[in-house]
Every structure is written in structure tokens, then in C-alpha cells.
Design brief:
With about 290 residues, the chain is an all-alpha fold. The protein has helices spanning about 5-25, 40-60, 65-85, 90-115, 130-145, 150-155, 165-195, 215-230, 240-255, 255-270, 270-280, and strands spanning about 30-35, 35. The chain has a two-stranded antiparallel ribbon with strand order 1-2. It starts with a helix and ends in a 12-residue tail after the last helix.
Length: about 290
């Protein structure tokens, strides 16, 4: 067992412990199913789905279903409690619809992209190792659980609250974030599909205002879900507000922006046009005419 595999072996129980602790904090006002809070069951479901798909993926040495599984998991953990909770409210229906729309859109987009590209090179060194590949799938279970935790509190809560100003504000913010993400992804896909742009970086549309506008949209839409959940939160359930913070930290400092910035620097670091673009374009938040 090499160093990376040892780290993975240690990381898996840590990931599960974090998920268990968060589930315990959030389940204080959850309806119960078979003697346990429904919210806890949804956390379990998020991980079980990853492991079920991990097994054939490891045997086939493929990552093609990784992103699709993440999206299916989001759909499962919001639609199952909507069906099982006898006290589902209009707020629960709202968050289930919003999360489902996002998951369907992003899942189909990512699956189409990897089908076209044939592979995701991030997994080249990971998928031959059982422990490292398993750790990544387990980490995706945590990603789903933490990101969706505000929605899960609403969907499993015994407290049905009428829609109000928080729901309006959250929905508007979600719509803004979703629009930014969809437009940014569409612009980049069309740019890459043009043979004349082969080997070039995109600096038009929303990408002229931000180097990562799609991530900005992602952060905004999950913040919108958190706002919708605010009237339902009680006691330790306020820990659910970690959701938009987690999304921001993950994308801005861990797996999103840093990775893509490094890749872009390696590819275009000596390109004067890219250096001007980088110097004159905000890193994350799309603001016309503003510099980072």
C-alpha cells in the first residue's frame, strides 16, 4: 500500500464520521422512518448509491458514470423524502423542484461532456487503485450530503412553514445563479465546438467578466436554497447553513478554481493575450468592466 492509498484508507472513515456528525445535528426535527430520522436515511442513501455504482465502475476501470451518479443521487435524496414525508409542504415541493432542475441540467451536461471527451483525465492515476477510487466516490457522497443539507432539512422537517419573503428571495437568487451557470456553460461549449477556437481560451460572453462564471452561478443558487430553508431551521439545524459556505470553499479554494487556474497557467502561461485576460478579468464574480 503506497502513501496515497494509506491516505485514502484514513480519509474514508473520516468522511463518514463527518457525515454522521452533520446528520445528527440536522435531524433533531426530522420525521422518523423505521425508528430513525428520515434525514439520516437520506444521508445513508447518498453514500450507498455511490458505492453501488463504484463497484462496476472499478471493475470496468471507468469514470464515465461518476458525475451522472452524483446527479442521480441529488434527485434521489430530494424526491424520496418528498414522497415519504407525510407533512411535506409547499416549501418542500419548491426546494425539491429547484434541486431537481439543477441536477437534471448539470447531470446531462456533464455526462454529455465526458461522453464526447471519452474520459476525465483527473481519474487517470486514481481509478487503478481500489482505495483511492473508493475514496473519491465516498467523497462524492459527502459532497451531495453537505451541499443538499438545507434542502434535506426542509424536506424531512416536521415543521411546515408557509412560503414568505425568505422563499421569494431564495428563489430569485437561485434563478440568478442558475441562469449564470447555464449561460456560462453554454457559451463555453459553443466556443469549444468551433474548430477555429482549438487551443484557445474563452474570453467572451460571461467569460469576459469572470474567469469562472459557472462556479459563481453554482454558489449563488445553493445560497438561494439556504435562504428558502431559513424559516424551518431550529436549534442545531442552523448547522445546515454550512451548505453554501461549503460550496464556496470547495469551488474557490479546493477542487474548482485552483485546479482550473493551474491547468490554464500550464497551457497558456506564456501567452501574452492570456496574461492580459487574467490580469484584467475577475477571478470568480462576474462584474462587467471590473478587474480582479
Amino acid at each position: 500500500m503506497n502513501k496515497a492509498e494509506k491516505i485514502s484508507a484514513l480519509a474514508i472513515p473520516v468522511i463518514l464520521a463527518i457525515a454522521a456528525g452533520l446528520a445528527a445535528l440536522l435531524s433533531s426535527h426530522s420525521v422518523r422512518l423505521a425508528g430513525a430520522p428520515l434525514l439520516v436515511w437520506m444521508f445513508v442513501l447518498a453514500f450507498v448509491l455511490q458505492w453501488l455504482v463504484f463497484i462496476p465502475s472499478f471493475l470496468a476501470q471507468t469514470e464515465k458514470f461518476f458525475d451522472l451518479t452524483g446527479s442521480v443521487t441529488y434527485l434521489s435524496v430530494v424526491l424520496v423524502p418528498l414522497w415519504l414525508n407525510p407533512q411535506s409542504s409547499s416549501r418542500a415541493i419548491l426546494v425539491a423542484v429547484l434541486v431537481s432542475l439543477w441536477a437534471l441540467r448539470l447531470g446531462s451536461f456533464l455526462f454529455s461532456r465526458i461522453h464526447k471527451d471519452g474520459k476525465d483525465r483527473r481519474f487517470d492515476a486514481i481509478k487503478p487503485s481500489f482505495l483511492r477510487f473508493l475514496m473519491v466516490w465516498t467523497l462524492q457522497g459527502l459532497w451531495v450530503s453537505v451541499t443538499a443539507c438545507c434542502a434535506l432539512v426542509v424536506l424531512t422537517s416536521v415543521n411546515a412553514k408557509p412560503l414568505g419573503i425568505w422563499a421569494v428571495a431564495g428563489t430569485l437568487l437561485w434563478l440568478l445563479g442558475m441562469a449564470i451557470e447555464v449561460v456560462a456553460d453554454t457559451q463555453k461549449s459553443r466556443f469549444k465546438a468551433n474548430p477555429a477556437n482549438r487551443g484557445r481560451f474563452i474570453d467572451s460572453g460571461l467569460w469576459a467578466w469572470s474567469r469562472h462564471p459557472n462556479y459563481a452561478g453554482e454558489i449563488l443558487l445553493w445560497t438561494g436554497i439556504a435562504l428558502i430553508a431559513v424559516p424551518v431551521l431550529q436549534g442545531s439545524q442552523w448547522a445546515a447553513l454550512i451548505s453554501p459556505i461549503f460550496v464556496f470553499v470547495l469551488l474557490r479554494y479546493i477542487s474548482g478554481v485552483p485546479m482550473l487556474e493551474k491547468r490554464a497557467d500550464e497551457r497558456w502561461g506564456d501567452d501574452a493575450d492570456y496574461q492580459r485576460y487574467k490580469a484584467g478579468t475577475r477571478l470568480l464574480w462576474p462584474v462587467p468592466g471590473k478587474k480582479h
